[in-house]
Amino acid sequence: xxxxxxxxxxxxxxxxxxxxxxxxxxxxxxxxxxxxxxxxxxxxxxxxxxxxxxxxxxxxxxxxxxxxxxxxxxxxxxxxxxxxxxxxxxxxxxxxxxxxxxxxxxxxxxxxxxxxxxxxxxxxxxxxxxxxxxxxxxxxxxxxxxxxxxxxxxxxxxxxxxxxxxxxxxxxxxxxxxxxxxxxxxxxxxxxxxxxxxxxxxxxxxxxxxxxxxxxxxxxxxxxxxxxxxxxxxxxxxxxxxxxxxxxxxxxxxxxxxxxxxxxxxxxxxxxxxxxxxxxxxxxxxxxxxxxxxxxxxxxxxxxxxxxxxx
Length: 311
Description:
- The protein is an alpha/beta fold.
- It contains 7 helices and 16 strands.
- The strands form 4 sheets. Strands 12-13-11-14-15-16 form a 6-stranded mixed β-sheet, sandwiched between helices.
- The two termini are 33 Å apart.
- The mean pLDDT is 85.
């Protein structure tokens, strides 16, 4: 299952201890090294938050101790946690940042400074301790994934969304003739565009029926809604308006996004029925086109329509 939310404890490294050493009858202990910082980094090659264990503490290395002859503790590596796009980062319910782009880096914790060695202390007698500076930083962070896509596919189960995602992209989504074959959002790449099949929308989703509304947050970052309506439905336009009403209840943001209606399964009706249904949508001022997975020309037209709409 897609893991799109997790709460984890993260800590930076403590500063290393200063050295107490003598050389040639003088203080020669070096300062401790700085503790590791903590960074979050975005990657398009990771897809959810399943790599994170809520029971684990994610901690950067502590700084290394100072050495004799005033040698400072060696530098330790920082801790970098890899996150999928787009991940929102919360600390105590406050949004502190978003990881939205591949390679984007966000520093969230600073490592402690190294402790003073006795060579430093003897030269600066007013410096008695820097234990407070040596302490590391820590926090319990909530990571919330909101999948990033250019086009989302919506529609009732069995509208053919998953089959068309497979046809348009490199996705390999399971398809079958029953509701909720797809149990979580599925992504595919089409000529550099990210398409996402949003599962589980049925009449009553707003009230918790079916798979509920947990996946709706993944629509926030999309640019275009492709609303799939099956021509096998008794009244395709009624199916469309019912789904639109459900979306209005669930998410004002999704309801107001640019939309294209895609009539599917054209091979199941004759040309007269297709023309009548198409006219019904166009008479309402709704942008509509039709397709079928066995009609290569209509698939190509669908691709070009998506690309043109996103320019």
